[in-house]
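Subject: Sanity check before I submit

Could someone independently write out the structure tokens for this chain? I want to compare against mine line by line before I put it in a report. The sequence has 437 residues.
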Amino acid sequence: MKPIRVGLLGMGTVGSGTVRVLERNASEITRRAGRAIRITLIADRDVEKAKRLAGNVPVTNDAFQVVSNPEIDIVVELIGGTTVAKDLVLKAIGNGKHVVTANKALLALYGNEIFEAAQDAGVIVAFEAAVAGGIPIIKALREGLTANRIEWIAGIINGTSNYILSEMREKGVSFEDALKDAQALGYAEADPTFDIEGIDAAHKLTLMASIAFGIPTQFSKAYTEGITKLTREDIAYAEELGYRIKLLGITKRVEKGIELRVHPTLIPAKRLIANVEGVMNAILVKGDAVGATLYYGAGAGSEPTASAVVADLVDVTRMHTADPEHRVPHLAFQPDALSDVEILPISEVETAYYLRMRAYDKPGVLAEVTRILADLEISIDAMVQKEPHEGQELVDIIMLTHRTVEKHIDCAISKIEMLPVISGSVKKIRLEELNRN
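---
Independent answer below. Compare away.
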């Protein structure tokens, strides 16, 4: 049987890793796919650099030449962004080519349009590499857990942020110093906004939520909060109370709708996911039948991500001649069975909270604070009042609450901040137990 012919867009970190993995494991891949998979044309702006990495494969600087080439069966899009990449992907689909992509932003923003176009054209869009690098989480959600009613997902899905938080906890450094270290090591970009503000994680969470719950991609409705305002004091206080702070992407099916949120979160230190350090990723998925399952591994990097790209190439090759109606749907559920269930605003989310406030060391302070919480039916799970430093009249008070609705805690915070015995603003961090219930 003749080889499947692949056109590769982008010869950067992941593209070059894809070429290496395909070459190194060619025999094994052929045995699994049933036919050889060969890159026959590459597009990259830096043609000379790409040629040095591509061996004997022809290289062009015109990506549209690849998606329009009648000899190409599968287009692998690894250029990133949401403008030219979108045009190329839609052009490839329009030309009847299958697409493999690692572009989470593109699919989070335009996935509904792209999947509909692919459905109409009878082609596959595969995107395992778009979420959590080499961890096969898309396949797990879309196929391995298909017997389950997924209840919730919670994941460390951005390695840069996880590295920064690990450094802050282990070394007691500030956010700014940990970020500089991450940039020096190449873990963070010169402009790290997408990573540290939670946007990258929200792109990935949007895709996982769609597959888990059978809903259209709705990135615009995801609540996103980054790690830039976290202090080493909060990380240390959380540790004293038996918790670790991680940037989590969380999506839950609740009675009122679907939660879709990315934010710093306290997790009990005894949970496995709380002990995921450095640039590693981990995702907890809770299904009604299987219970809680954990997926761990490298969330980025040349060959870990290439592993997912090549796995998609093998899957597409296997299904290349299959009737489109018998393929696994892009978002796990049949296209006409997607649900329009509401994505909840963050004000309606219910969880527990860590609160830190600075108060004057005077009698009656705690009574005033607890009265406000009690009036809003917010109960306290734990509380610590730190001793004032010599010569200072302000003390830190840390509280952990039981579960309550976010709008109630926000109302309480507003009232607490107005108390004359409180100095400055109250720090709020959400808390999740992530147990099997």
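---
OP: Matches mine. For the report I'm noting this point. The mean pLDDT is 95.
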